[in-house]
From TrEMBL:
SUPFAM superfamilies: P-loop containing nucleoside triphosphate hydrolases, PUA domain-like, Ribosomal protein S5 domain 2-like. The keyword tRNA processing does not apply. GO terms for biological process: protein import into peroxisome matrix; protein processing; protein quality control for misfolded or incompletely synthesized proteins. This is Lon protease homolog 2, peroxisomal. InterPro entries: AAA+_ATPase, ATPase_AAA_core, Lon_bac/euk-typ, Lon_lid, Lon_proteolytic, Lon_Prtase, Lon_prtase_N, Lon_prtase_N_sf. ATP-dependent serine protease that mediates the selective degradation of misfolded and unassembled polypeptides in the peroxisomal matrix. Necessary for type 2 peroxisome targeting signal (PTS2)-containing protein processing and facilitates peroxisome matrix protein import. May indirectly regulate peroxisomal fatty acid beta-oxidation through degradation of the self-processed forms of TYSND1. GO terms for molecular function: ATP binding; ATP hydrolysis activity; ATP-dependent peptidase activity; serine-type endopeptidase activity. Interacts with PEX5. Interacts with TYSND1. May interact with enzymes involved in beta-oxidation of fatty acids, including ACOX1/AOX. Signal peptide: none annotated. The gene is LONP2. It is found in: Peroxisome matrix.
Length: 912
């Protein structure tokens, strides 16, 4: 049964037409029909190949149109039609006699009788409706989609395919190469003599842009028009079948007849198919079909698959004799084979060229990696993977990392690109090859140059500069210094970051700043494990990737503001990073292999050491960077900040002048800070305002120049006449351009920055007894604090306000106790003149900035002074501010952590 004719199996008509087949019983036939009626399922892009083959079981057959899916409606239609066929069959079985004319009513009885003869040739109907096409040529055994929009063809589809439901009505005569089939001319155009009888498999209708149908048709056999029977509404012709549709009983004989020709053809066909990519399912299927299809069917099928013109297809269609057909198809096959060979050759050349280019690159010596994707795969992604693989080979990563990369790339190659893990693995590998495992810059260690550079960049901060120079000097003497991590602690804007940057500059290293403020997840430092969605490396590894060398200067900014959360303690993660003994083996969770951080120079900054975890603090050497005095600020402003701002705003000293008094005014009245950041911003604002003036001045100057020129040419009247309205208003506006340089005095300051923000009315506030000035320390720098006291009638109560902590409250009690015990000695009395200060008296002590919590023992001396002033009625000097803890015996303990400079700053502020 396997040798059964494919046409017989395909053609549902064959069994209907011939009645009982000697080869298969009615049941088997029925099965064959039902399967044969299935609409095509698989598709090829061109949609020209319909391959049929013997079914896996005898009697069953499959028709597989390899065109894009047949529609559901067609499927339904076919099922219905199949149902009818089956009904006819069952009726036949019931009655016990053949009823061949169920569907082929058009076929003349004589013919049917012949069809029922012992040879049982399979016939198409003698009368066929003609579908006139111009687009392509349908060959027997192939499938084609054709658009139907001419009036005749539309009529044919409507009356034969949409209304009629019989199988017979779905057989059409397709006439190719009809000149202008869409023309609605009355007369039928000249028709091609030979056509293809076809089975309409699917009809899809659409109304846009104009009503039309798309037909999916499968070629069955050639026919020849004997005579056109009618022309309207669609042509119908009496036809003569040219190809035999029955099983080829004499296949062997035919083979002998055709002899070598058939063999030769078969060889070329096999050669061609083997040159194609067998991994494409359609090609693999074609290869199998070559063996299972009868040779006679191959020329038509292969012609419709290979690249041929319509003209060539038409010639094949016209070649009725099998021998002629073979002869005509062989050159077409040979041409296709040659074309493919040429293509393969050029591809190979291209590859060879690529390889040669790689080979002559001096450093990138590429050895062939077994299993690399260097085939003729032009896929860009695969190229990328090959590149990645090469990079892994050539990168100088340590052995362990290299092993991991090789393993990962092997996995990557096996992974489909659509897998989410594909992108993850690729990103990972890209990071691995980008990391500077062995790439570093050479240090430029010249202490003298470093000193000059530091001095040039920063005014004052002697202590810090001294320590940095020491550090650099030791590095110069001992290259692989495992020294401590420097941590600059000080208020904002005192130049901690900029010193860090200068250190990098003096060493000739890359600089990278890692802001740690608010970081509360340890993965921020150590990275996420790759198992998490959206995983990425930590900031340290990211920073290394950014700078591209393994010995940069990393500035860990604001280590005191590291947070803590459920996601772990980032400070703990930093411990490993900052420990010189451990960090040569730092393992980021994302990388999962160790990276050597020992060459990285870490510098940390903080505003206070109070919030740095002790373990972390222990690993760092703290260098205090104090705030600046007014004099220092003035110097910094004139040496660094003003020139920098002028440059940024495109101004020159010839255009703007800021005298030192103005700078002092800005410092005292517009800023209150330990550093110079706010001061810098104020200069920025001044420069912007001046820039506007300068630009306006230039504009006006330019206009004046224009007028001058016009006047010079005797054009005064000309201006007055031609440009009167505009020029008059303009010239009235035209004040002279501002005189250069624009001097910034206090009035200009007020104009630009607004009224002063801080007025120093210290002496006013100290105009009555019971007020003293204390010194306070905040992470943002030193502050002065007015401590106020008042007394009233009462029962000896002490009231304290201003959010004081316990220690401060105790200091207040201590002060009162000491004053009471020494009242006589210092002539302190209450309102009624008694030395018992609390007799019928209540005391209220207030520390301003009531919303800010205050604590600490150092307010003791200020409280004593304040109360002494209250009870003695004498004023406290307005130019003294104080800080210090007192004891019960009246001693003021020295304050160690508040440096002279800050006291000085405050006292100077007070004295204004
Ligand atoms: P911090 O890191 O301490 O908050 P920055 O380093 O960002 O402060 O400094 C703020 C600005 O002040 C920078 O433009 C810096 O150049 C400038 N600056 C601070 N101190 C000095 C100084 N001593 N000499 C010159 N410029 C300074």
């Amino acid at each position: 049964m396997k040798e059964e004719s494919y046409f017989k199996q395909v053609d549902p008509l064959c069994s209907l037409d011939t009645g009982e087949s000697p080869a298969a019983g009615p049941r088997e036939q029925g099965e064959g029909q039902a399967r044969g009626l299935r609409p095509p399922r698989e598709g090829t892009c061109e949609g020209t190949l319909a391959l049929c083959r013997a079914g896996p079981r005898g009697g069953s057959a499959k028709l597989r149109g390899l065109s894009p899916g047949a529609g559901r409606s067609a499927g339904r239609k076919w099922r219905r039609a199949g149902g009818r066929a089956a009904a006819g069959r069952s009726g036949r079985r019931r009655s016990g006699r053949a009823e061949p004319a169920v569907l082929l009513s058009d076929a003349p009885p004589a013919r049917t009788a012949v069809a029922m003869s012992s040879v049982s040739p399979i016939q198409i109907p003698r009368r066929l409706p003609l579908l006139l096409t111009n687009e392509g040529v349908l060959l027997p055994g192939s499938t084609m989609r054709t658009s139907v929009d001419s009036a005749r063809n539309l009529q044919l589809v409507r009356s034969r395919l949409l209304k009629g439901t019989s199988l017979q009505s779905t057989i059409l005569g397709v006439i190719p190469n009809t000149p202008d089939p869409a023309s609605d001319a009355q007369d039928l155009p000249p028709l091609h003599r030979i056509g293809t009888a076809a089975l309409a498999v699917q009809v899809v209708g659409s109304n846009w842009p104009k009503p039309h149908y798309t037909l999916l048709i499968t070629g069955l056999c050639r026919f020849q028009i004997v005579q056109v029977l009618k022309e309207k509404p669609y042509p119908v012709a009496e036809v003569e079948q040219l190809d035999r549709l029955e099983e080829f009983p004499n296949t062997c004989k035919t083979r002998e007849e055709l002899g070598e020709l058939s063999e030769q053809f078969y060889k070329y066909a096999v050669q061609l198919v083997e040159m194609l990519d067998m991994s494409v399912p359609a090609v693999a299927k074609l290869r199998r079909l070559l063996d299972s299809l009868p040779r006679e069917a191959l020329p038509d099928i292969l012609t419709s698959i290979i690249r041929t013109s319509n003209k060539e297809k038409l010639q094949i269609l016209d070649a009725v004799s099998l021998e002629e057909r073979f002869k005509m198809t062989i050159p077409l096959l040979v041409r296709q084979i040659e074309g493919l060979k040429l293509l393969q050759k050029t591809r190979k050349h291209k590859q060879d060229d690529d390889k040669r280019v790689i080979a002559i690159r001096p450093i990138r010596r590429i050895t062939h990696i077994p299993g690399t994707l260097e085939d003729d795969d032009e896929d860009e992604d695969n190229d990328d993977i090959v590149m990645l693989e090469r990079k892994i080979r050539t990168s100088s990563m340590p052995e362990q990392a290299h092993k991991v990369c090789v393993k990962e790339i092997k996995r990557l190659k096996k992974m489909p690109q659509s897998m989410p893990e594909y992108a993850l693995t690729r990103n990972y590998l890209e990071l691995m090859v980008e990391l500077p495992w062995n790439k570093s810059t050479t240090d430029r260690l010249d202490i003298r140059a470093a000193r000059i550079l530091l001095d040039n960049d920063h005014y004052a901060m002697e202590k810090l500069k001294k320590r940095v120079l020491e550090y650099l000097a030791v590095r110069q003497l001992k290259n692989n210094l495992k020294g401590p991590i420097l941590c600059f602690v000080g208020p904002p804007g005192v130049g901690k970051t900029s010193v860090g940057r200068s250190v990098a500059k003096t060493l000739g290293r890359e600089f990278h700043r890692i802001a740690l403020g608010g970081v509360c997840d340890q993965s921020d430092i150590r990275g996420h494990r790759r198992t998490y969605v959206g995983s990425m490396p930590g900031r340290i590894i990211n920073g290394l990737k950014t700078v591209g060398v393994n010995n940069p200067v990393f500035l860990l900014d604001e280590v005191d503001k590291l947070g803590k959360s459920l996601q772990g303690d980032p400070a703990a993660a930093l411990l490993e990073v900052l420990d010189p003994e451990q960090n040569h083996n730092f393992t980021d969770h994302y990388l999962n292999v160790a990276f050597d951080l020992s060459q990285v120079l870490f510098i940390a900054t903080a505003n206070t050491t109070a919030t740095i975890p002790p373990a972390l603090l222990d690993r760092m050497e703290i260098i205090q960077v104090p705030g600046y005095t007014q004099e220092e600020k003035i110097e910094i402003a004139h040496r660094h900040l003003i020139p920098k701002q002028l440059e940024q705003h495109g101004l020159t000293p010839q255009q703007i002048q800021i005298p030192q008094v103005t700078t002092l005014d800005i410092i005292t009245r517009y800023t209150r800070e330990a550093g110079v950041r706010s001061l810098d911003r104020k200069f920025g604002a001044i420069c912007r305002a001046v820039a506007v003036k300068v630009a306006e001045g230039q504009h006006k100057e330019a206009k004046l120049d224009r007028y001058d020129v016009a006047e010079g040419e005797g054009g005064r009247e000309h201006i007055l006449e031609d440009a009167k309205p505009e020029s008059i208003s303009d010239t009235t506006d035209l004040a002279l351009p501002p005189e250069m340089p624009i001097l910034i005095d206090f009035h200009a300051l007020k104009d630009i920055l607004g009224p002063p923000m801080y007025e120093m009315e210290v002496s006013e506030r100290l105009s009555q007894p019971g007020v003293a000035i204390g010194l306070a320390w905040t992470p943002l720098g030193g502050e002065i604090m007015f401590v106020e006291a008042s007394r009233m009638d009462g029962e000896g109560q002490l009231t304290l306000t201003g959010q004081l902590g316990d220690v401060m409250k105790e200091s207040a009690h201590l002060a009162i106790s000491w004053l009471r015990s020494n009242a006589k000695k210092y002539h302190l009395t209450n309102a009624s003149g008694s030395f018992d200060l609390l007799d019928n008296t209540d005391i209220h002590l207030h520390f301003p900035a009531g919303a800010v919590t205050k604590d600490g023992p150092s307010a003791g001396v200020t409280i004593v002074t304040c109360l002494a002033s209250l009870f003695s009625g004498r004023l406290v000097r307005s130019d003294v501010a104080m800080t210090g803890e007192i004891t019960l015996r009246g001693l003021v303990l020295p304050k160690e952590d508040l440096r002279g400079k800050e006291i000085l700053l405050v006292i100077r502020n007070v004295s204004r």
